[in-house]
Amino acid sequence: MIVRRGGAAALTVALLVTGCAAQQKAATQQEGAAVPGVTGTTIKVGGVLTKTSASGYSTKDAEIGAKARLERANAEGGVHGRKIEFLGAEDDGQDAAKGDAAAKKLVQKDQVFALVPVHAPNFGGAAFLEQQGVPWFGWATGPQWCGTKTGFGYNGCLAPKQGAGSQTWWGRQMADLLGGAEGKSVYVQTSDSSGSKYGGTTISQSFTAAGFKLVGVNSGLPAAAPPPDWLPYVNKIMTSNGGKAPDIVVSVIAGTKFNVGLYSALKRAGYKGVLTDATSYDAAILKDPASAQALEGVIAAPMFEPFESTAPEIAQLKQDVEKVAPGTVLTQHLAIGYWAADIFLDMLDKTGKDLTREKFLATGNGSYAYENAGFGRIQYPKDHSEPNGCGALVKLENGAFQVAKSMKCFDNVPLK
Description:
α2 packs parallel to α12 and α5 packs across α6. It is globular, with a radius of gyration of 25 Å. 40% of the residues lie in helices and 21% in strands. It has 13 helices and 16 strands. The relative contact order is 0.14.
Protein backbone atom coordinates (compact mmCIF):
# COMPACT_ATOMS: atom_id res chain seq x y z
CA MET A 1 0.00 0.00 0.00
CA ILE A 2 2.90 2.33 0.79
CA VAL A 3 4.30 1.63 -2.65
CA ARG A 4 0.94 2.28 -4.25
CA ARG A 5 0.50 5.56 -2.36
CA GLY A 6 4.02 6.56 -3.39
CA GLY A 7 3.23 5.73 -6.99
CA ALA A 8 0.01 7.74 -6.82
CA ALA A 9 1.86 10.65 -5.24
CA ALA A 10 4.50 10.54 -7.91
CA LEU A 11 1.82 10.41 -10.58
CA THR A 12 0.05 13.38 -9.00
CA VAL A 13 3.30 15.39 -8.90
CA ALA A 14 4.01 14.47 -12.52
CA LEU A 15 0.57 15.61 -13.58
CA LEU A 16 0.98 18.89 -11.70
CA VAL A 17 4.37 19.51 -13.31
CA THR A 18 2.98 18.71 -16.75
CA GLY A 19 0.00 20.97 -16.14
CA CYS A 20 2.21 23.85 -14.99
CA ALA A 21 4.45 23.42 -18.00
CA ALA A 22 1.44 23.50 -20.30
CA GLN A 23 0.11 26.61 -18.59
CA GLN A 24 3.54 28.24 -18.82
CA LYS A 25 3.77 27.40 -22.54
CA ALA A 26 0.27 28.76 -23.14
CA ALA A 27 1.13 31.93 -21.27
CA THR A 28 4.28 32.32 -23.36
CA GLN A 29 2.29 31.84 -26.55
CA GLN A 30 -0.28 34.40 -25.41
CA GLU A 31 2.50 36.84 -24.56
CA GLY A 32 4.10 36.28 -27.96
CA ALA A 33 0.77 36.85 -29.67
CA ALA A 34 0.42 40.12 -27.77
CA VAL A 35 3.75 41.40 -29.09
CA PRO A 36 3.71 41.23 -32.89
CA GLY A 37 7.15 41.08 -34.45
CA VAL A 38 8.93 40.17 -31.23
CA THR A 39 10.45 36.82 -30.29
CA GLY A 40 13.06 35.96 -27.72
CA THR A 41 15.79 36.62 -30.26
CA THR A 42 14.39 38.99 -32.92
CA ILE A 43 12.44 42.21 -33.49
CA LYS A 44 10.85 42.62 -36.92
CA VAL A 45 10.60 46.05 -38.58
CA GLY A 46 9.92 47.43 -42.07
CA GLY A 47 9.45 50.85 -43.62
CA VAL A 48 7.49 52.93 -46.13
CA LEU A 49 9.31 55.17 -48.60
CA THR A 50 8.57 57.04 -51.80
CA LYS A 51 10.81 54.99 -54.04
CA THR A 52 9.08 56.00 -57.26
CA SER A 53 6.86 58.93 -58.22
CA ALA A 54 5.55 60.73 -61.29
CA SER A 55 7.66 63.78 -60.41
CA GLY A 56 10.84 61.73 -60.10
CA TYR A 57 11.13 62.47 -56.37
CA SER A 58 12.51 59.47 -54.45
CA THR A 59 13.52 58.75 -50.87
CA LYS A 60 14.71 55.19 -51.58
CA ASP A 61 18.18 55.82 -50.13
CA ALA A 62 16.63 55.97 -46.65
CA GLU A 63 16.38 52.17 -46.84
CA ILE A 64 20.18 51.88 -47.11
CA GLY A 65 20.68 54.29 -44.22
CA ALA A 66 18.32 52.40 -41.92
CA LYS A 67 19.82 49.03 -42.89
CA ALA A 68 23.33 50.29 -42.18
CA ARG A 69 22.45 51.41 -38.66
CA LEU A 70 20.39 48.31 -37.86
CA GLU A 71 23.11 45.98 -39.15
CA ARG A 72 25.68 47.58 -36.85
CA ALA A 73 23.33 47.01 -33.93
CA ASN A 74 23.01 43.35 -34.93
CA ALA A 75 26.79 42.98 -35.25
CA GLU A 76 27.10 44.30 -31.70
CA GLY A 77 24.72 41.64 -30.38
CA GLY A 78 21.38 43.32 -30.98
CA VAL A 79 19.33 45.11 -28.33
CA HIS A 80 18.93 43.19 -25.07
CA GLY A 81 19.85 40.02 -26.95
CA ARG A 82 17.42 40.53 -29.83
CA LYS A 83 18.60 41.05 -33.42
CA ILE A 84 16.66 43.38 -35.70
CA GLU A 85 14.99 41.62 -38.63
CA PHE A 86 14.68 44.33 -41.29
CA LEU A 87 12.16 43.57 -44.04
CA GLY A 88 13.13 46.57 -46.14
CA ALA A 89 10.70 49.27 -47.24
CA GLU A 90 7.43 49.35 -49.17
CA ASP A 91 6.97 51.94 -51.95
CA ASP A 92 4.01 54.33 -51.61
CA GLY A 93 4.57 55.95 -55.02
CA GLN A 94 3.94 59.34 -53.35
CA ASP A 95 0.28 58.30 -53.04
CA ALA A 96 -1.49 58.56 -49.67
CA ALA A 97 -3.76 55.58 -50.32
CA LYS A 98 -0.82 53.37 -51.26
CA GLY A 99 0.99 54.49 -48.12
CA ASP A 100 -1.99 53.48 -46.01
CA ALA A 101 -2.13 50.08 -47.75
CA ALA A 102 1.62 49.62 -47.23
CA ALA A 103 1.31 50.36 -43.51
CA LYS A 104 -1.55 47.89 -43.16
CA LYS A 105 0.41 45.19 -45.00
CA LEU A 106 3.41 45.61 -42.74
CA VAL A 107 1.31 45.51 -39.57
CA GLN A 108 -1.40 42.99 -40.43
CA LYS A 109 0.36 40.60 -42.80
CA ASP A 110 4.08 40.96 -42.01
CA GLN A 111 3.45 41.48 -38.27
CA VAL A 112 6.17 44.08 -37.74
CA PHE A 113 6.75 45.55 -34.31
CA ALA A 114 7.38 49.06 -35.68
CA LEU A 115 7.80 50.93 -38.98
CA VAL A 116 11.40 52.05 -39.60
CA PRO A 117 11.92 54.18 -41.63
CA VAL A 118 8.90 56.12 -42.84
CA HIS A 119 10.05 58.78 -45.30
CA ALA A 120 7.18 59.68 -47.63
CA PRO A 121 5.88 63.27 -48.00
CA ASN A 122 2.29 62.13 -48.63
CA PHE A 123 2.29 59.20 -46.20
CA GLY A 124 -1.29 58.07 -45.65
CA GLY A 125 -0.86 55.43 -42.96
CA ALA A 126 -0.61 57.71 -39.92
CA ALA A 127 -4.21 57.35 -38.71
CA PHE A 128 -4.06 53.55 -38.96
CA LEU A 129 -0.75 53.31 -37.07
CA GLU A 130 -2.00 55.65 -34.36
CA GLN A 131 -5.21 53.65 -33.96
CA GLN A 132 -3.27 50.37 -33.78
CA GLY A 133 -0.61 51.75 -31.40
CA VAL A 134 2.26 50.91 -33.79
CA PRO A 135 5.41 53.07 -33.47
CA TRP A 136 6.87 54.64 -36.64
CA PHE A 137 10.08 56.57 -37.19
CA GLY A 138 11.28 58.87 -39.98
CA TRP A 139 11.29 62.45 -41.26
CA ALA A 140 8.32 64.34 -39.83
CA THR A 141 7.77 66.76 -42.69
CA GLY A 142 3.97 66.79 -42.67
CA PRO A 143 1.14 67.42 -40.21
CA GLN A 144 0.25 63.69 -40.15
CA TRP A 145 3.23 63.20 -37.79
CA CYS A 146 2.26 65.91 -35.33
CA GLY A 147 0.15 65.40 -32.25
CA THR A 148 0.46 61.62 -32.38
CA LYS A 149 1.73 59.25 -29.71
CA THR A 150 3.18 56.76 -32.18
CA GLY A 151 4.94 58.90 -34.82
CA PHE A 152 8.54 59.76 -33.90
CA GLY A 153 10.20 62.15 -36.34
CA TYR A 154 13.97 62.12 -35.93
CA ASN A 155 13.76 65.93 -36.05
CA GLY A 156 10.48 66.36 -34.19
CA CYS A 157 7.36 67.83 -35.83
CA LEU A 158 7.96 70.27 -38.68
CA ALA A 159 4.30 71.31 -38.93
CA PRO A 160 3.48 72.70 -35.47
CA LYS A 161 0.10 74.22 -34.75
CA GLN A 162 -0.29 77.90 -33.96
CA GLY A 163 1.09 78.62 -30.51
CA ALA A 164 3.33 75.55 -30.45
CA GLY A 165 7.11 75.80 -30.73
CA SER A 166 8.41 76.68 -34.20
CA GLN A 167 12.00 76.43 -35.43
CA THR A 168 14.49 79.29 -35.32
CA TRP A 169 17.67 77.40 -36.14
CA TRP A 170 17.78 78.09 -39.91
CA GLY A 171 17.52 81.85 -39.50
CA ARG A 172 19.90 81.94 -36.55
CA GLN A 173 22.51 79.78 -38.27
CA MET A 174 22.27 82.06 -41.33
CA ALA A 175 22.60 85.16 -39.15
CA ASP A 176 25.75 83.74 -37.57
CA LEU A 177 27.15 82.88 -41.00
CA LEU A 178 26.48 86.35 -42.43
CA GLY A 179 27.73 88.25 -39.40
CA GLY A 180 24.30 89.26 -38.15
CA ALA A 181 20.75 89.80 -39.43
CA GLU A 182 20.35 93.53 -38.83
CA GLY A 183 19.44 95.41 -41.99
CA LYS A 184 19.17 92.22 -44.10
CA SER A 185 16.00 91.25 -45.98
CA VAL A 186 14.49 87.84 -46.80
CA TYR A 187 12.04 86.66 -49.47
CA VAL A 188 10.43 83.22 -49.26
CA GLN A 189 9.26 81.29 -52.35
CA THR A 190 7.02 78.23 -51.91
CA SER A 191 4.79 76.17 -54.16
CA ASP A 192 1.01 75.93 -53.81
CA SER A 193 1.14 72.53 -52.03
CA SER A 194 -0.09 72.50 -48.45
CA GLY A 195 3.25 71.24 -47.12
CA SER A 196 5.26 73.86 -48.98
CA LYS A 197 2.98 76.70 -47.89
CA TYR A 198 3.10 75.54 -44.30
CA GLY A 199 6.88 75.32 -44.49
CA GLY A 200 6.92 78.86 -45.84
CA THR A 201 5.13 80.05 -42.70
CA THR A 202 7.43 78.32 -40.22
CA ILE A 203 10.64 79.10 -42.09
CA SER A 204 9.66 82.75 -42.55
CA GLN A 205 9.29 82.99 -38.80
CA SER A 206 12.68 81.31 -38.34
CA PHE A 207 14.28 84.22 -40.18
CA THR A 208 12.24 86.99 -38.57
CA ALA A 209 12.94 85.52 -35.12
CA ALA A 210 16.65 85.79 -35.95
CA GLY A 211 16.25 89.48 -36.80
CA PHE A 212 15.89 89.45 -40.60
CA LYS A 213 13.28 91.61 -42.36
CA LEU A 214 10.68 89.58 -44.27
CA VAL A 215 9.84 91.36 -47.55
CA GLY A 216 7.69 88.75 -49.23
CA VAL A 217 6.22 85.25 -49.31
CA ASN A 218 4.94 83.86 -52.63
CA SER A 219 3.00 80.58 -52.64
CA GLY A 220 1.66 80.82 -56.19
CA LEU A 221 4.14 78.44 -57.82
CA PRO A 222 2.41 75.26 -59.12
CA ALA A 223 3.66 72.14 -57.31
CA ALA A 224 3.09 69.65 -60.11
CA ALA A 225 5.89 70.79 -62.42
CA PRO A 226 8.28 73.72 -62.92
CA PRO A 227 6.60 76.62 -64.79
CA PRO A 228 7.47 77.24 -68.45
CA ASP A 229 8.29 80.85 -67.58
CA TRP A 230 10.03 81.86 -64.37
CA LEU A 231 9.98 85.58 -65.18
CA PRO A 232 6.81 86.50 -63.20
CA TYR A 233 8.28 84.95 -60.06
CA VAL A 234 11.70 86.47 -60.62
CA ASN A 235 10.25 89.95 -61.17
CA LYS A 236 8.42 89.78 -57.83
CA ILE A 237 11.58 88.70 -56.06
CA MET A 238 13.85 91.28 -57.67
CA THR A 239 11.59 94.19 -56.63
CA SER A 240 10.38 92.86 -53.25
CA ASN A 241 12.75 94.90 -51.08
CA GLY A 242 11.37 98.37 -51.74
CA GLY A 243 12.00 98.03 -55.46
CA LYS A 244 15.30 96.23 -54.95
CA ALA A 245 16.33 92.59 -54.63
CA PRO A 246 16.33 90.99 -51.16
CA ASP A 247 19.55 89.93 -49.45
CA ILE A 248 18.35 86.32 -49.11
CA VAL A 249 15.96 84.18 -51.14
CA VAL A 250 14.65 81.07 -49.35
CA SER A 251 13.21 78.33 -51.54
CA VAL A 252 10.69 76.04 -49.85
CA ILE A 253 10.17 73.85 -52.92
CA ALA A 254 10.61 70.06 -53.07
CA GLY A 255 12.77 69.07 -56.01
CA THR A 256 16.05 69.95 -57.65
CA LYS A 257 14.36 70.75 -60.98
CA PHE A 258 12.39 73.56 -59.36
CA ASN A 259 15.40 75.07 -57.64
CA VAL A 260 17.59 74.79 -60.74
CA GLY A 261 14.95 76.67 -62.72
CA LEU A 262 14.40 79.36 -60.10
CA TYR A 263 18.07 79.97 -59.32
CA SER A 264 19.11 80.00 -62.98
CA ALA A 265 16.43 82.58 -63.74
CA LEU A 266 17.45 84.73 -60.78
CA LYS A 267 21.10 84.65 -61.80
CA ARG A 268 20.18 85.65 -65.37
CA ALA A 269 18.31 88.58 -63.88
CA GLY A 270 21.46 89.65 -62.06
CA TYR A 271 20.68 88.44 -58.55
CA LYS A 272 23.81 88.58 -56.35
CA GLY A 273 22.37 87.73 -52.94
CA VAL A 274 22.19 84.51 -50.91
CA LEU A 275 20.15 81.53 -52.14
CA THR A 276 19.17 78.89 -49.60
CA ASP A 277 16.90 75.84 -49.40
CA ALA A 278 16.49 72.53 -47.56
CA THR A 279 16.98 70.12 -50.46
CA SER A 280 20.03 71.13 -52.54
CA TYR A 281 22.44 69.14 -50.39
CA ASP A 282 22.34 66.29 -52.90
CA ALA A 283 25.36 64.44 -54.28
CA ALA A 284 23.48 63.75 -57.53
CA ILE A 285 23.73 67.46 -58.31
CA LEU A 286 27.51 67.20 -58.59
CA LYS A 287 27.18 64.66 -61.41
CA ASP A 288 25.09 67.03 -63.52
CA PRO A 289 27.17 70.03 -64.71
CA ALA A 290 24.09 72.11 -65.53
CA SER A 291 22.57 71.58 -62.08
CA ALA A 292 25.88 72.14 -60.32
CA GLN A 293 26.35 75.43 -62.18
CA ALA A 294 22.82 76.60 -61.39
CA LEU A 295 23.24 75.74 -57.70
CA GLU A 296 26.79 77.06 -57.32
CA GLY A 297 26.93 79.20 -54.19
CA VAL A 298 23.63 77.89 -52.79
CA ILE A 299 23.51 77.30 -49.05
CA ALA A 300 21.53 74.18 -48.15
CA ALA A 301 20.09 73.56 -44.69
CA PRO A 302 20.14 69.85 -43.74
CA MET A 303 18.77 68.79 -40.36
CA PHE A 304 21.77 66.56 -39.64
CA GLU A 305 25.53 66.94 -39.45
CA PRO A 306 26.92 67.08 -43.01
CA PHE A 307 28.87 64.16 -44.48
CA GLU A 308 31.87 66.45 -44.98
CA SER A 309 32.12 66.91 -41.19
CA THR A 310 35.01 65.45 -39.20
CA ALA A 311 32.70 64.48 -36.32
CA PRO A 312 33.21 60.87 -35.09
CA GLU A 313 29.49 60.15 -35.51
CA ILE A 314 29.74 60.91 -39.24
CA ALA A 315 32.83 58.74 -39.61
CA GLN A 316 30.83 55.92 -37.99
CA LEU A 317 27.89 56.48 -40.36
CA LYS A 318 30.20 56.26 -43.38
CA GLN A 319 31.76 53.07 -42.04
CA ASP A 320 28.35 51.50 -41.41
CA VAL A 321 27.08 52.35 -44.90
CA GLU A 322 30.22 51.05 -46.58
CA LYS A 323 29.76 47.68 -44.87
CA VAL A 324 26.23 47.09 -46.16
CA ALA A 325 26.44 48.91 -49.51
CA PRO A 326 30.04 49.52 -50.65
CA GLY A 327 30.47 52.55 -52.88
CA THR A 328 27.09 54.07 -52.02
CA VAL A 329 26.81 57.80 -52.62
CA LEU A 330 25.78 59.49 -49.39
CA THR A 331 22.52 61.44 -49.65
CA GLN A 332 20.18 63.39 -47.42
CA HIS A 333 17.58 60.63 -47.60
CA LEU A 334 20.17 58.05 -46.54
CA ALA A 335 21.04 60.15 -43.47
CA ILE A 336 17.37 60.48 -42.54
CA GLY A 337 16.93 56.69 -42.62
CA TYR A 338 20.09 56.20 -40.59
CA TRP A 339 19.21 58.65 -37.81
CA ALA A 340 15.59 57.47 -37.64
CA ALA A 341 16.88 53.93 -37.04
CA ASP A 342 19.39 55.23 -34.50
CA ILE A 343 16.65 56.80 -32.39
CA PHE A 344 14.53 53.66 -32.66
CA LEU A 345 17.43 51.59 -31.32
CA ASP A 346 18.04 53.98 -28.43
CA MET A 347 14.37 53.86 -27.49
CA LEU A 348 14.45 50.05 -27.63
CA ASP A 349 17.47 49.97 -25.35
CA LYS A 350 15.85 52.30 -22.82
CA THR A 351 12.64 50.24 -22.83
CA GLY A 352 14.48 47.14 -21.65
CA LYS A 353 14.28 43.42 -22.33
CA ASP A 354 10.62 43.07 -21.31
CA LEU A 355 9.34 44.50 -24.58
CA THR A 356 5.79 45.29 -25.65
CA ARG A 357 4.50 48.10 -27.82
CA GLU A 358 2.79 49.59 -24.78
CA LYS A 359 6.03 49.67 -22.78
CA PHE A 360 7.98 50.96 -25.77
CA LEU A 361 5.53 53.84 -26.29
CA ALA A 362 5.54 54.57 -22.58
CA THR A 363 9.32 54.98 -22.80
CA GLY A 364 9.12 57.16 -25.90
CA ASN A 365 6.40 59.38 -24.48
CA GLY A 366 7.68 59.52 -20.92
CA SER A 367 10.26 62.32 -20.75
CA TYR A 368 12.40 60.63 -23.40
CA ALA A 369 15.57 62.51 -24.37
CA TYR A 370 18.48 61.58 -26.61
CA GLU A 371 21.39 63.62 -27.98
CA ASN A 372 23.73 62.72 -30.81
CA ALA A 373 26.05 65.08 -32.68
CA GLY A 374 24.88 63.46 -35.91
CA PHE A 375 21.36 64.92 -35.74
CA GLY A 376 21.29 67.07 -32.60
CA ARG A 377 18.76 66.23 -29.93
CA ILE A 378 15.26 64.88 -29.56
CA GLN A 379 12.81 65.13 -26.65
CA TYR A 380 9.47 63.38 -26.43
CA PRO A 381 6.59 63.94 -25.90
CA LYS A 382 7.49 67.63 -26.51
CA ASP A 383 8.74 67.00 -30.04
CA HIS A 384 5.48 65.37 -31.09
CA SER A 385 4.26 68.95 -31.48
CA GLU A 386 7.34 70.98 -32.42
CA PRO A 387 10.70 70.67 -34.22
CA ASN A 388 13.84 69.57 -32.43
CA GLY A 389 15.40 72.96 -33.28
CA CYS A 390 18.62 71.62 -34.81
CA GLY A 391 20.31 72.00 -38.19
CA ALA A 392 23.45 72.75 -40.17
CA LEU A 393 24.39 74.75 -43.28
CA VAL A 394 26.28 73.46 -46.32
CA LYS A 395 27.53 75.57 -49.23
CA LEU A 396 28.09 74.35 -52.78
CA GLU A 397 31.37 75.98 -53.72
CA ASN A 398 33.59 75.28 -56.73
CA GLY A 399 31.62 72.14 -57.49
CA ALA A 400 31.93 70.64 -53.99
CA PHE A 401 29.96 70.82 -50.76
CA GLN A 402 31.60 72.58 -47.83
CA VAL A 403 30.40 72.73 -44.21
CA ALA A 404 29.32 76.32 -43.66
CA LYS A 405 27.92 75.83 -40.14
CA SER A 406 28.05 72.56 -38.21
CA MET A 407 25.02 71.10 -36.46
CA LYS A 408 23.67 73.32 -33.71
CA CYS A 409 20.43 73.36 -31.72
CA PHE A 410 18.39 76.43 -30.75
CA ASP A 411 15.28 77.00 -28.66
CA ASN A 412 12.02 77.27 -30.58
CA VAL A 413 9.58 80.17 -30.40
CA PRO A 414 5.76 79.95 -30.43
CA LEU A 415 4.38 79.84 -33.98
CA LYS A 416 2.42 82.99 -34.79
